[in-house]
Design brief:
- The chain contains 15 helices and no strands.
- The protein is mainly alpha-helical.
- The chain has a domain at about 105-275: MetI-like (MetI-like fold), CATH 1.10.3720.
- α7 crosses α13.
């Protein structure tokens, strides 16, 4: 009598699969419904927490921008309303005698203030990156001016310091300079706004400081073994490793400089005193909108600024592909 062949799964591994048994599948039924319910609940919670931000963005940012874009194509007056005029406002902007004056003042401020501010913030950040006792106090002290620099109170103090009979005038006159205060000299008046921007270098300084903390010390140690000095280590190690941080700070400070309004308006007024030397582009927009009540014309001014800043941003991102080094990428 012959022995029967083994039929259990233990006697023949994989027999169930070969015999056409259904393959093993993932969790189904209540467990699957439970997991999908959890994912749905998490998604709902995420949208719920995002809802205030989404509403605020739509009501306070996207809505006003869309309305401003519409107004730029109309002859809208804040009191009497207006009508659709097409590109008339945009053509009128370039015919405005103040347009190129405000562009020149704004570009001069951007070109001077941004490099000086970033160089000063990087220099101070390198000093504060040293591991010494009490360094936390100095970091907080250097950062503090950036919290109040763009306030109305500081702008008024700055105006008093650099006026014709202010502290700056008294100090400079003691050295024989009788040119008056910065506020009374059109050739140097914009420098007080540049100094105010440089004085408030706390934000880029903190970002530079965070970037310096991430530079591997092994690179500096290897450079010292090869005989590299401080300057060579700065040029060949610090700057390449900080290039993403430098690019971020340059981008943010440039965009912010184009939008300067508060100190310029408080110090120079609507006329950009003295002799339009502090008449920034944003001040001109404010004057057209809320003094002359020409909202359509002011909106066209504003959208030209948006377009200009967008073009500058695109150029900077294109240049960053060649100038910015990211750790781990091959060049």
């Amino acid at each position: 009598m012959s022995a029967s062949p083994p039929t259990t799964a233990e006697s023949k591994p994989g027999a169930a699969g070969e015999a056409g048994a259904p393959p093993v599948r993932g969790p189904r039924g209540a467990a699957g419904r439970r997991s999908s319910g959890i994912r749905g609940g998490e998604r709902l919670a995420g949208y719920t927490f995002m809802l205030p931000w989404l509403i605020g963005t739509a009501v306070l940012t996207i809505g006003p921008m869309a309305w401003s874009l519409y107004l730029s194509f109309t002859d809208y007056h804040l009191i009497r309303g207006g009508e659709w005029t097409g590109l008339t406002n945009y053509r009128a902007v370039f015919d405005d005698p103040m347009f190129f004056r405000t562009v020149r003042v704004t570009l001069m401020y951007v070109a001077v203030s941004v490099p000086i501010k970033l160089v000063a913030s990087l220099f101070v950040a390198m000093l504060l990156s040293q591991r010494r006792r009490g360094m936390g106090f100095y970091r907080a002290a250097f950062y503090m001016p950036s919290l109040i620099a763009m306030s109305v109170g500081v702008a008024l103090i700055w105006k008093a310091l650099f006026s014709n009979d202010g502290v700056q005038d008294s100090i400079m006159s003691s050295f024989g300079w009788e040119g008056g205060g910065f506020l009374g000299n059109p050739s140097v008046s914009i420098l007080m706004l540049v100094l105010l921007a440089v004085w408030s270098f706390g934000a880029p300084m903190v970002i530079f400081l965070a970037g310096l903390m991430q530079v591997p010390q092994q690179l500096y140690e290897a450079a010292e073994v090869d005989g590299a000095g401080k300057w060579r280590k700065f040029v060949h190690i610090t700057l390449p490793m900080l290039s993403p941080v430098i690019f971020f700070n340059v981008l943010m400070e440039t965009v912010g400089a184009f939008q300067l309004f508060g100190p310029a308006y408080i110090i120079g007024g609507e006329a950009g005193a003295p002799a339009w030397s502090t008449l920034f582009y944003t001040v001109r927009i404010y004057t057209l909108a809320f003094t002359d009540f020409r909202m359509g014309f002011a909106s066209a001014y504003a959208w030209i600024l948006v377009l200009a800043v967008g073009i500058v941003t695109i150029i900077m991102f294109r240049a960053a592909k060649q100038l910015v080094f990211y750790a781990g990428e091959d060049r």
